[in-house]
Design a protein that fits this description.
Elements lengths: L9 H10 L22 E5 L2 E19 L5 E16 L5 E16 L6 E14 L8 E13 L3 E12 L5 E5 L3 H6 L8 H6 L4
Length: about 200
């Protein structure tokens, strides 16, 4: 699904991907980290605590995304490349998580008609924990862009800007064109009419 926000140069994102495997220099981690980092991250003790970082690529299989006005369920899928960094304090509690995410070979599709609209997406996702170690206290900020362009029609969907979600999951701030925020949060179904038409959901 789109997690969207200010423009990110794809080249810059890909540049970050090539840098991560080298890791940060530091001492081995001897303390318990809360919450535990996923297995694809490598952790190093530093002066202010612990930093864990790594990258992974995975496939999002087709899954329901939204429903068009005629009732057709539109699916989303793609290949996701993530670069993740976690910051833990001297007590071993997580204070911040940063994810750089790039979607490729991605599409919205209508299984009834077989029509598909392809897209790319690049996002920065930053979670700041008000209570170290407790993801339930995190404020999430998402910046990036995700656009759908159809030959002969041009851009039929634009997402570009910044959104902030509070610890309770409520939207606290939104800037820039945010079609999926308009749809899912504000209930404006008309913003997806053009995409639904392209997918034969009329």
């Amino acid at each position: 699904m789109f997690r969207l926000g200010p423009p990110i140069l794809v080249a810059a994102v890909l540049g970050l991907l090539t840098l991560v495997p080298a890791g940060l220099a530091g001492q081995p981690v001897t303390q318990t980290l809360t919450p535990s980092p996923p297995s694809f991250l490598t952790c190093h003790a530093v002066g202010g605590g612990t930093i864990c970082e790594g990258s992974r690529t995975f496939t999002e299989d087709p899954h329901p995304d939204f429903v068009c006005g005629n009732g057709d369920v539109i699916l989303d899928q793609g290949t996701v490349r993530q670069v993740v960094t976690r910051y833990y304090d001297t007590d071993g509690n997580l204070t911040r998580r940063v994810i750089h995410e790039f979607w490729s070979d991605a599409q919205k599709s209508n299984p009834r008609t077989g029509a598909a609209a392809f897209y790319t997406q690049a996002s920065n996702i930053t979670d700041v924990l008000a209570v170290p170690g407790d993801f339930g206290s995190a404020t999430e900020t998402v910046t990036g862009q995700g656009n759908i362009t159809v030959p002969g029609l041009g851009a039929i969907l634009l997402n570009d800007g910044r959104i902030v979600f509070g610890a309770d999951g409520a939207l606290e701030f939104s800037a820039g064109p945010q079609v999926f925020i308009d749809y899912f949060v504000n209930g404006d179904t008309a913003v997806l009419d053009e995409l639904c038409a392209v997918l034969g959901a009329t």
